[in-house]
Write a structure and sequence with these properties.
alpha/beta; globular
Length: 739
């Protein structure tokens, strides 16, 4: 596009949006990543999280008044629970603004009224209320109030779902329509139906952004199936009201589900569908819209040519390296208006829903990239590209300055241990205050010393895949871990004060009833030994881009979906002729885990969790306990670095009781107490000289081999013998780490 007077190219203006719904407590980071990249190109873009904006508009005094007025004007028959809420409409309208403000941490004193159980109207969600004293007794009044407020909102959500919009859900919208939608028929029918209160509100919120920003291109990020319907609603509005604006759809859903899309009706709602990393495709698309490139040069883009969906990928331009994508930019988003809710009393789920987390990726892809149930054939897993600790900390500092928040969720598929070590050291070196959590593999490189270092840098929790707690199936999955190893690594994290959440899986091909029960026994013992604090069972799903989906015959399963649909293709129905009837175990696994997380019923026979006959476990009752006692695989790498996290010692010299020998005492002061260690004056002098070099600072960390050389050059004896002595072990018990 050219301005005819000046002949200066007019750049395409950009609006980046996330449609409802992902999370109430924090924005999904895709648009922030793209905005950060566009900053590196000196292109201005505006972003909006329509999910939180729609929620705040509907869940307000004006919004609820409109909702109840619509119900009053309708002739819909309400259930007893819905009618109770409708009958209490005045109480809901009166309290909603104050409750929302409280959940935004803007009205903390309301907690007292909420906890009195006389302020909020209550419906069926409160009938399922757990023992608040047991669940929140040590957490304080504000957590109790947040949980009660969450139940209050969920009551309203139940009413909306029953009487106004059957697709509504706080963290997903019309998810069923998007999940495994091999045909576009049902989605298309729903999109052409009259607006509900929510879709009407969505369009109103979107229109305000369109009128203000007047974008040439609207980028719609669809991370999950629960965003697809609302995203296409946005596209429908733009195409009908602002046909000059172009719409491109991308994100995690497109990357996994729409790789073979053929249905031309999708392009009634969008102009382009982008696959995989969005930076390079978006840059090229913008250049095409600016008239600087031909459309044939598009990168990883679907568009409609006549009545045919055509895939364009002729551009030779490479993807943008992670180091060049720029710092995610969270400006424009309503960062102080998100809601901190507590949906369920699960410690890891609480992290997902409570508090605002800056989301950041440490490395593109997965450094392991072998798990047979994972989409390892796709770029977001296959292409591994780590960043440096220094660059990551630069971005962390920039984001803290921009958002005022120092909480980070590193959203990697599996954070690499070596990179986490370097990042932790860089955080400590820069004296940053950071609180963070991430996903990991339970691999042996996560030693207790490394976990202590991660804790010192601000790590509060990790989640990792134990999956089916069966060594045979873990090997078949190519997880690269054993149950015993998982137990040891989880213990290292837990003993360092870091919470551990285990992803658990059942229903993997050929899994027998015996293996399901044995897996449950392993999980029971892990909770009983206190090495994991949280977990969740997922039913195995076979996806088209995983080794299981690509080669089902290699895993003894029968693929029952031979016909490729014209729309989404990812989840595959399948038969497992060699395995158990996996659906039978769902409820028993859920109930048992719920109790194990609360530290109760750990002595129950496993058969009590199921209403059908199950085999007895074949796992020794002391299997996990014995695994934790086994240190046979513990070795120290010669290039491991030695770190002293403590303060520098105060040295004192005195004689022993006989007056014949001089003894050195090193006194260390830490944040909570002091401790003293005695040794010879020579060793004390050596350590006083070494300690500043071992602290994390501007100096390069010393390797264990360098420490050994220094010790032995000082004629202090054999270093290997010294390491097993009381002085070295006392230091290791406190702040000396080998990582």
């Amino acid at each position: 596009m050219l301005n005819r007077k000046t002949k200066i190219p007019l750049q395409t203006s950009i609006l980046l949006i996330t449609p409802p719904f992902t999370q109430l407590n924090t924005p999904y980071p895709a648009t922030a990543y793209l905005k950060g990249f566009l900053n590196t190109l000196n292109r201005k873009a505006y972003q909006a999280d329509l999910g939180i904006e729609v929620i705040l508009k509907v869940f307000s005094k004006a919004g609820l008044t409109q909702l109840f007025d619509r119900l009053e004007a309708s002739d819909i028959a309400l259930s007893d629970n819905a009618f109770r809420i409708y009958s209490l409409r005045s109480a809901y309208i009166t309290t909603i603004d104050a409750v929302i403000s409280f959940l935004q941490n803007k009205n903390p004193t309301l907690a007292h009224s909420i906890c009195s159980r006389s302020y909020l109207p209550e419906a069926s969600r409160f009938m399922q209320l757990e023992d608040l004293e047991w669940a929140f007794g040590t957490m304080g009044i504000h957590d109790k109030a947040r949980h009660l407020s969450t139940l209050y909102l969920e009551d309203l959500a139940d009413l909306i779902q029953e009487a106004e919009d059957p697709y509504f859900g706080f963290s997903r919208y019309a998810e069923r329509l998007g999940r495994s939608a091999s045909s576009f028929d049902e989605l298309n029918t729903a999109l052409l139906a009259p607006n509900t209160l929510f879709t009407q509100t969505l369009c109103e919120v979107l229109e305000a952004h369109l009128l203000r920003e007047q974008p040439t291109l609207v980028c719609i990020s669809i991370p999950f199936p629960g965003n697809l319907f609302a995203g296409l609603k946005c596209g429908q509005w733009i195409r009908s009201k602002h046909p000059h604006m172009k719409v491109v759809l991308g994100g995690g859903y497109a990357n996994t589900e729409l790789r073979s899309v053929k249905d031309h009706r999708l392009f009634n709602y969008v102009d382009f569908v982008s696959l995989d990393d969005g930076e390079a495709p978006l840059k090229i698309l913008l250049e095409c819209l600016d008239g600087e490139r031909e459309p044939s040069e598009l990168k990883r883009m679907f568009k409609l040519e006549g009545e045919e969906v055509v895939y364009f990928n002729k551009s030779k331009e490479r993807d943008v390296p992670q180091r060049d994508t720029g710092t995610p930019d969270y400006s424009d988003l309503l960062l102080h208006d998100y809601l901190s809710v507590i949906e369920v009393v699960n410690p890891m789920h609480r992290l997902w829903s409570d508090g605002r987390w800056n989301k950041l990726t440490l490395a593109h892809g997965c450094y392991w990239g072998k798990c047979s149930f994972c989409d390892i054939s796709l770029d977001y897993i296959r292409r591994y590209e780590p960043m440096t600790a220094s660059l990551l900390c630069d971005r962390i500092e920039d984001i803290i300055a921009q958002t005022g928040q120092n909480g980070f969720h590193f959203v990697d598929e599996a954070a690499p241990p070596a990179l986490l070590r370097d990042l932790a050291m860089e955080i400590i070196r820069r004296k940053l205050t950071v609180v963070w959590w991430t996903n990991i593999r339970f691999e042996k490189n996560f030693t207790t010393d490394l976990c202590v270092l991660l804790k010192a840098s601000g790590c509060i929790a990790v989640s990792g895949g134990l999956e089916v707690a069966s060594d045979r199936l873990l090997e078949r999955m190519k997880k690269g871990v054993t149950v015993s190893q998982v137990a040891k690594v989880a213990h290292s994290f837990t003993s360092s004060g870091i919470m551990v959440h285990a992803y658990l899986m059942y229903g993997f091909p050929t899994q027998t009833s015996q293996e399901t029960i044995d897996s449950l026994e392993m999980v029971r013992q892990l909770f009983d030994q206190g090495v994991i604090q949280s977990g969740f069972w997922h039913r195995f799903a076979m996806t088209a881009h995983s080794p299981v989906g690509l080669h089902p015959e290699s895993f003894d399963v029968m693929n029952l979906t031979p016909d490729i649909g014209s729309f989404a293709n990812n989840d595959l129905d399948h038969a497992d002729p060699l395995g158990a009837d996996h659906a039978l175990f769902s409820e028993g696994l859920r109930k048992s885990l719920f109790n194990f997380m609360h530290g109760v019923c750990l002595d129950y026979p496993l058969s009590r969790w199921f209403d059908f006959k199950v085999p007895k476990t074949s796992i020794s009752k002391r299997y996990i306990q014995n695994s934790l006692l086994d240190n046979s695989d513990h070795t120290t790498r010669s290039n491991a670095v030695v770190i002293w996290l403590g303060s520098l010692p105060e040295l004192g010299l005195f004689e022993d009781e006989t007056g014949e020998f001089e003894i050195a005492e090193l006194v260390f002061y830490d944040k909570r107490k002091e401790f003293a260690v005695e040794t010879t004056p020579e060793i004390a002098a050596w350590f006083c000289e070494m300690a500043p070099k071992l602290q994390i600072g501007n100096n390069a960390p010393l390797q264990i081999s360098e420490i050994k050389a220094s010790f032995e050059l000082t004629d202090l004896g054999d270093f290997d013998t010294f390491q097993s002595g009381s002085f070295w072990q006392a230091l290791k018990k406190h702040h000396l780490l080998i990582v």
